[in-house]
Amino acid sequence: MLHGPAAMGEPWQPQPQQQRLPGLGNASEPSAWPSAAGGPGTAAPGGGGAGAGAGAGAGGAVSPWDIALCATGTAVAGENALVLAVLFYTPSLRAPMFLLIGSLALADLLAGLGLVANFAVRYLLRPPSEAAELGAAGLLLAAFSASVCSLLAITVDRYLSLYNALTYHSERTLGFTCAMVLLMWLLCLGVGLLPLLGWNCLRDQSACSILRPVTKDNAAVLAVTFLLLFALMMQLYLQICKIAFRHAQQIAVQHQFIATAQATSTRKGLSTLSLILGTFALCWIPFAIYSLVADSSYPVVYTYSLALPATCNSLINPIIYAFRNPDIQKSLWLACCGCVPSTFSSRPRTSSDV
Q1: Positive or negative torsion for Cα 322, 147, 180, 228
Q2: Which of the residues 43, 72, 329, 336 has an alpha carbon 20 to 30 A from that of 260?
Q3: ω before 213 within 30° of 0 (cis)?
Q4: Dist. CA 111–CA 139, nearest whole Å
Q5: What is the predicted pLDDT for the residue at 62?
Q6: Which is nearest to 330 in space by CA: 110, 18, 98, 22?
Q7: pTM for the full predicted model
Q8: What sign does the dihedral 204-205-209-213 (CA atoms) show?
Q9: CB neighbourhood size of 221 (10 A)
């Protein structure tokens, strides 16, 4: 016996069903890639938003912001791989200072690879994998944490090289520096394992910060930690600047230099200090403050627009800390051209070179 429209002589029509796109996430929603916002970092966009799963998938549109992050990660990985190759194949670059530069380059290299891996997990991995998402987030968390810690270690090393100029080379041996770098990396790797060990919000989406899978409380702690580390770096660099100026004055008096020589050294120290702190602050401070005060109701475009400059800091680090060094410049010239230009100056670093 027929019921409904067919019983009344009306043709039966199938009811439309809701179409579902492949994937659990939305291409416009950011997923967490934890950053080094202060040792342990906060997260950034890359693969699913709060309440979302893995990524957009084959059926969804690829976000231009994710493409930009992936391209930035590729450039970061390539640039820092070049720094590591120069340090590895140049036997003369084995001083503690170059070991710290190598640690920074390795951290930024892993950060670049993490951005690429996060893109792959979001758009290429099918079916979506929770373990892969947490693994990519952990890699980024560990890498950016190690990057910021390496920057802090370089700052401390520069401070000690000026504050204890007479005993620095005897106290800061290569073995001691290797032990400190290894301890730092173990700590950062431990931080990177936290998402896989349950420190995430995948089981409670209401606890997520704007940057999945970091919780709101963890994001606040990480942002505050970063701001404290930045304040410490700024204080150390101010002390470095004072010591460098005092040394420059003493050298000028001993050698009876004219006033313009000291003025040039002072300007160079200030410009270097401004470059280091200014670049680091412009890249990371807005993102850290935003991750501290924002919640999941904020438009995701804000997250992306602040996270992209933060990742670009890993693109700028080799220029500031590696390519400006005369010894590394010389090695690059020898590797690329087989010679060193006659105009190249390999003047040793002095206390005025902050």
Answers
A1: positive
A2: 329
A3: yes
A4: 7
A5: 87
A6: 98
A7: 0.78
A8: positive
A9: 16
